[in-house]
């Protein structure tokens, strides 16, 4: 049996799959010790731990450690003259008109920052040798006195030659063996010292936390008789065995949204859809990601709490539009939705817990798309009157009916999501009309059709159990690791040759790491060159197809680059300018083979009921189907509502929905 | 046009226009070539309506963004909107006709939908070198002609005059680093093209009428919000004053005076009493004076989320005497106009402090320190130009921000590793926060910083302009002043030279230049500073002496 346990902020979800049988369990999260909630979910599901061969886990432990500044006491060591790297940052401000601006706070204080005398040059030659005597006489005693658990080292140009970082780490470990040492060349062998230093210090900061958490989890599992493989989700969309994760903590940040994208991608692939835009609409926000040929897009940089992280992550854009997002009027008289959210408590007005704000969920109740008696399969009864009351002030303000005001709020929420989708598609040179939309999360399928119409998307794939796709993603994802190295070279035949050689070197290193993790099997590699015109500072990622690696030539690389540059910037294809390679990246993936099936729960068929929905400017009559009672290939013509246990789908007029063999509900625009 | 917009269409279109402007800005920076544009991000972008009014902006550099409408309208006066054809572009960097200073070149691309110009894609970039009397920065210029190539408000055709055309060849022939400069121009054209495309898509989706109506409504919206904020401010007339160290020739300070009158729903700022224009590059063109004033008033009066566009400026009027430092007669040199612009910002802020003490900050180091190293090697010129800020001023509730670009600008630093790759004639050997550089107070100013540069070859030229080497930033409500800046050269032969705030000097191998930009001033009395904050700064080494000990000693 394969089991995924996803710890979220409010709920801990469990999905267990075996031979097409699916168990879904939801319990309250226990934020102070997330493992308690995880084990509660395992208990509640009634699964025998001894029978689990594959347990995938995702949690917000790493993310929360940073957001709440509860990581390990960590020291930072930089090249002499650059102790303040983490405080200088990039000298810019995020909000240019904010007079009271404060920089993002790094997880160390200035008193925890130290220096080592040394200097490496950009070409890897040593300019000033490491002053080992000073390390022994001054740095090590200071580290010892500071009471640190971890130390992060980031020396200038160490990406080009890590010998000083390695030596410094060895000296520290020799003297202080209990200190966890993280070097910048281990987490990101790329240039730009502040971003690399930030990544290194964040990694050192969360590693002891992740290490302790996973160790405790492993011990508890062992006590309960578990003998399968315990794996942990990463932000890059792949898994790692828990033991390996304890050494590579930085990739555990933001693993939750990544698991959702992978789950949605796998489930959509079973219906043959590989070019996708996934959107996960939860309580406070919506996460959007573009998937090309079954592979979610990657970004080489992300940030947490304003601090940059230079490791590959799924390119997920988050926007403050969720079920709890509040509709309001700003002091210029404009109607807005979000990013403020009513959260889970008191939550939307219709939850009846004292909330009075008009939220997206209330808007659905007012317009009839969510039935108060049938929310979450009837597990939670909603207050219709409270929802109406919440929208009354807005309706009066704009001289609209309450239903119109609610409908306006929904359109604005849709518009926010549309913009997020444009950010991952149009702005990256991709046309959203070439993709299928895959909504999940509690509220996603209700909004999908209108968003699709706005973007000209013709196909929507609604996965079964749309509310627990992230947990499914934990057992449906492959094992993945990335390596990258900055090696600036002007593109010519020699550089192409060198690139091929470096790629081979990185593949060998990754293969060795997989062997160390005791993960046998054939690895699948991706090869990417970060390239730019000579003189530019930002690189465009150019993927090299595996079948062209054998005889890599400069002309071919140059063509690929020109195309990629033009796609993003609308210029560059015709420029007769020299081009350079800056960073080389290799991704290694060990496929898990056929992902487990995520089937829906099927109930006896029953005829649809009639219902009334406020759509556009008026109330319309439409059919209301029960998702679990649909039959395969049944044709549902919009307008219709398909009500399910974890999510409800809206099928507008002009759309046809059918349940396919993979249990996905496919919405197509009628020709 | 009488189209009325429902609130949804308005919200959707306006947000889409703002998103398009932001995308233009991102792409301008990311496809640029010179360090000043790609690393320091000294450029901006926006969308304008067909009348030349700013509709939406990418929030990059406040100074460049403020008067972009003035810059475009100067072009439209000569080339009316209906005379434009598809493929045309407008260009302007003329300080005396809506521009600011020579390096900031504004380019406008008309957006044609169904034969009608619905608006313009606009971008501005600080160009590393546009010719003139010295590479990157000519601090000795005594008139605008010595500061580089001037493009008066003019019209060219992209297909005919660029991409190997005559205008491109003219620019190429007159600049020292043509690869970078032409590359940056291309990044501007590309950013404009993105804006044009996005607005066209919006017009297709919603119709021209709705898009143009939304453009107008966005300006009205900002205007309403600014007027609403002014209505809540105390009414009256308030005075503020600050000064520049000197003009680089004599030792006399250059005073700048602001009289701010807050009326029911408008604000007037009069700069009567400000000193006359000067012989060196510290003159501030009208557009720059306007921009600095608008930035200050907007930052103090309104919440940061009010979109910056032409409507924002409508309730704010300025009066600037012609021939003064803040509205010079041609052909005055204006390269360092950021320095007087900052004193405009400070003088207006000090006036507003009397009306709105909780919404202002004390003076920060508040300079644009331009630091330019250049070297002529066998392969031609190599020019390095960076912009440094300093510490922010403190406010009622917060310490000033440490080591950040000053309020009117927002340049990033160049990564040291990126400079190591790109330049072989110098190396950064230190970049640190400066302890004790801020003014103490109930809240302290932000710390300033040091950047140390080792010169690796002979015949390197250094040019700087900065300020506050003589006059320190003043605190508010009993706060102490921040430290003054300096630029010091430790010569290879052991001697030390102290530079003026506006200087040019030759450097040789082994010399080390130490540039120090100071901290911000404090807010409120230092005796009211909480112990926990003092102890934090002592532990972090940002304070080297306990001010409480000194106070105690003084009391005894």
UniProtKB/TrEMBL annotation, chain A:
Domain Acetophenone carboxylase-like C-terminal positions: 493-662
Domain Hydantoinase A/oxoprolinase residues, every copy: 196-480
Protein name from the UniProt record: N-methylhydantoinase A
GO MF annotation terms: 5-oxoprolinase (ATP-hydrolyzing) activity
Domain Hydantoinase/oxoprolinase N-terminal: 2-174
Coiled coil: none
Pfam families: Hydant_A_C (PF19278), Hydant_A_N (PF05378), Hydantoinase_A (PF01968)
Cellular component aspect of the GO annotation: cytosol
Listed GO biological process terms: glutathione metabolic process
Species for this entry: Enhydrobacter aerosaccus
PANTHER family in UniProt: 5-OXOPROLINASE RELATED, HYPOTHETICAL 5-OXOPROLINASE (EUROFUNG)-RELATED
UniProtKB/TrEMBL annotation, chain B:
GO molecular function: 5-oxoprolinase (ATP-hydrolyzing) activity
GO cellular component terms, A-Z: cytosol
Classification via InterPro entries: Hydantoinase_B (IPR003692), Oxoprolinase-like (IPR045079)
Transmembrane segments: none
GO biological process: glutathione metabolic process
Pfam family of the protein (one): Hydantoinase_B
Hydantoinase B/oxoprolinase domain location: 6-525
Domain of life from the UniProt record: Bacteria
Protein name as annotated: N-methylhydantoinase B
């Amino acid at each position: 049996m394969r089991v995924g346990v996803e710890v979220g902020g409010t709920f801990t979800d469990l999905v267990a799959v075996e031979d097409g049988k699916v168990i879904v369990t939801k319990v309250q999260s226990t934020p102070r010790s997330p493992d308690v909630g995880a084990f509660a979910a395992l208990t509640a599901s009634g699964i025998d731990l001894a029978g689990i061969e594959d347990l995938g886990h995702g949690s917000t432990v790493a993310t929360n450690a940073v957001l709440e500044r509860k990581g390990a006491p960590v020291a930072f060591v930089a090249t002499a003259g650059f102790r303040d790297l983490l405080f200088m940052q990039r000298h810019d401000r995020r909000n240019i008109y904010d007079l009271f601006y404060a920089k993002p706070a790094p997880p160390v204080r200035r008193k925890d920052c130290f220096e080592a005398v040394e200097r490496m040059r950009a070409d890897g030659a040593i300019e000033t040798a490491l002053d080992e005597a000073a390390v022994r006489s001054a740095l090590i005693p200071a580290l010892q006195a500071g009471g640190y658990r971890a130390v992060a080292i980031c020396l200038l140009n160490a990406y080009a030659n890590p010998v000083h970082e390695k030596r410094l780490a060895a000296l520290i470990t020799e003297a202080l063996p209990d200190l966890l040492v993280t070097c910048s060349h281990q987490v990101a062998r790329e240039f730009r010292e502040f971003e690399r230093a930030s990544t290194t210090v964040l990694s050192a900061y969360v590693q002891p936390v992740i290490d302790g958490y996973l160790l405790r989890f492993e011990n508890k599992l062992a006590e309960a008789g578990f003998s399968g493989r315990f794996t942990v989700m990463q932000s890059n969309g792949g898994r790692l065995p828990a033991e390996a994760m304890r050494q590579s903590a930085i990739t555990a940040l933001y693993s939750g949204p990544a698991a959702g994208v992978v789950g949605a991608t796998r489930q959509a692939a079973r219906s043959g859809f590989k070019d996708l835009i996934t959107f996960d609409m939860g309580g406070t926000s919506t996460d959007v990601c573009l998937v090309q040929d079954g592979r979610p897009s990657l970004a080489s940089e992300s940030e947490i709490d304003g601090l940059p992280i230079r490791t590959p992550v799924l390119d997920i854009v988050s926007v403050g539009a969720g079920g709890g997002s509040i509709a309001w009027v700003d002091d210029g008289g404009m109607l807005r939705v979000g990013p403020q959210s009513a959260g889970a408590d008191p939550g939307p007005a219709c939850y009846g817990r004292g909330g009075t704000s008009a939220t997206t969920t209330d808007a659905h109740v007012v317009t009839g798309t969510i039935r108060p008696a049938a929310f979450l399969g009837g597990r939670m009864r909603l207050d219709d009157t409270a929802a109406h009351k919440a929208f009354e002030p807005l309706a009066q303000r704009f001289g609209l009916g309450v239903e119109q005001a609610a409908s306006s709020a929904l359109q604005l929420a849709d518009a926010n999501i549309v913009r997020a989708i444009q950010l991952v598609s149009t702005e990256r040179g991709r046309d959203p009309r070439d993709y299928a939309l895959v909504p999940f999360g509690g509220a996603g399928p209700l909004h999908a059709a209108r968003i699709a119409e706005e973007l000209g998307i013709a196909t929507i794939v609604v996965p079964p159990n749309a509310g627990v796709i992230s947990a499914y993603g934990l057992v449906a994802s492959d094992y993945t690791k990335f390596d990258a190295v900055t090696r600036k070279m002007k593109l010519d035949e020699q550089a192409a040759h060198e690139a091929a050689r470096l790629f081979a070197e990185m593949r060998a290193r990754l293969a060795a790491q997989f062997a160390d993790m005791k993960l046998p099997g054939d690895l699948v590699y991706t090869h990417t060159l970060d390239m730019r015109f000579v003189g530019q500072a930002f690189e465009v990622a150019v993927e090299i197809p595996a079948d062209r690696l054998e005889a890599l030539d400069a002309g071919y690389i140059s063509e690929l680059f020109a195309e990629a540059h033009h796609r993003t910037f609308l210029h560059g294809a015709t420029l007769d300018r020299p081009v350079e390679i800056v960073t080389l990246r290799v991704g290694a993936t060990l496929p898990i083979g056929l992902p487990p099936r995520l089937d829906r729960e099927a109930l006896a068929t029953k005829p649809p009921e009639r219902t009334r929905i406020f759509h556009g400017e008026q109330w319309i009559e439409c059919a209301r189907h029960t998702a679990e009672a649909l039959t395969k290939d049944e044709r549902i013509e919009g307008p219709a509502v398909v009500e399910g246990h974890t999510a409800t789908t809206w099928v507008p007029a002009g759309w046809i929905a059918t349940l396919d063999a993979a249990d996905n509900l496919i919405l197509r625009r009628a020709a | 046009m009488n189209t009325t917009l429902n609130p949804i269409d308005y919200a959707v279109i306006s947000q889409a226009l703002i998103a398009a402007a932001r995308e233009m800005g991102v792409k301008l920076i990311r496809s640029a070539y010179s360090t000043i544009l790609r690393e320091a991000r000294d450029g901006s972008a926006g969308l304008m309506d067909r009348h030349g009014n700013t509709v939406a902006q990418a929030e990059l550099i406040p100074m460049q963004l403020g008067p972009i409408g003035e810059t475009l309208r100067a072009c439209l006066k000569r080339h009316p909107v209906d005379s434009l054809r598809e493929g045309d572009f407008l260009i302007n960097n003329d300080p005396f006709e809506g521009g600011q200073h020579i390096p900031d070149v504004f380019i406008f691309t008309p957006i044609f939908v169904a034969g009608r110009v619905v608006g313009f894609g606009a971008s501005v970039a600080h160009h590393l070198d546009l010719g003139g009397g010295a590479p990157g920065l000519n601090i000795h210029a005594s008139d605008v002609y010595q500061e580089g190539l001037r493009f008066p408000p003019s019209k060219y055709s992209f297909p005919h005059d660029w991409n190997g055309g005559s205008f491109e060849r003219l620019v190429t022939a007159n600049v020292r680093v043509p690869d970078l400069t032409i590359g940056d121009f291309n990044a501007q054209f590309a950013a404009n093209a993105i804006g044009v495309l996005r607005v066209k898509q919006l017009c297709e989706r919603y119709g021209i009428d709705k898009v143009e109506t939304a453009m107008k409504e966005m300006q009205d919206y900002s205007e309403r919000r600014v007027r609403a904020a002014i209505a809540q401010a105390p009414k009256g007339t308030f005075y503020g004053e600050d000064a520049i160290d000197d003009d680089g020739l004599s030792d006399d300070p250059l005073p700048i005076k602001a009289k701010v009158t807050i009326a029911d729903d408008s604000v007037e700022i009069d700069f009567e009493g400000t000193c006359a224009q000067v012989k060196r590059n510290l003159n501030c063109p009208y557009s720059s004076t306007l921009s600095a004033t608008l930035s200050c008033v907007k930052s103090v009066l309104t919440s940061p989320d009010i979109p910056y566009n032409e409507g924002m400026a409508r309730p704010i009027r300025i009066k600037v005497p012609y021939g003064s430092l803040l509205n010079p007669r041609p052909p005055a040199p204006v390269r360092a106009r950021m320095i007087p612009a900052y004193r405009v910002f400070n003088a207006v802020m000090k006036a507003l402090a009397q009306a709105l003490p909780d919404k202002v900050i004390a003076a920060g180091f508040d300079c644009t320190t331009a630091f330019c190293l250049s070297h002529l090697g066998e392969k031609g010129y190599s020019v390095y130009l960076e912009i440094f800020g300093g510490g922010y001023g403190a406010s009622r509730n917060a310490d000033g921000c440490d080591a950040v670009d000053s309020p009117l600008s927002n340049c990033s630093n160049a990564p040291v590793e990126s400079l190591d790759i790109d330049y072989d004639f110098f190396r950064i050997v230190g970049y640190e926060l400066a302890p004790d550089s801020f003014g103490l107070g109930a809240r302290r100013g932000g710390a300033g910083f040091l950047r140390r540069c080792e010169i690796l070859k002979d015949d390197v030229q250094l040019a700087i302009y900065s300020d506050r080497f003589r006059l320190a930033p003043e605190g508010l409500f009993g706060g102490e002043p921040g430290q003054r800046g300096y630029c010091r050269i430790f010569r290879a032969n052991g001697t030390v030279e102290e530079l003026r705030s506006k200087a040019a000097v030759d450097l040789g191998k082994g010399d080390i230049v130490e540039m120090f930009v100071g901290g911000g001033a404090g807010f409120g009395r230092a005796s009211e500073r909480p112990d926990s904050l003092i102890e934090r700064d002592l532990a972090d080494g940002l304070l080297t002496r306990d001010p409480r000990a000194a106070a105690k000693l003084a009391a005894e």
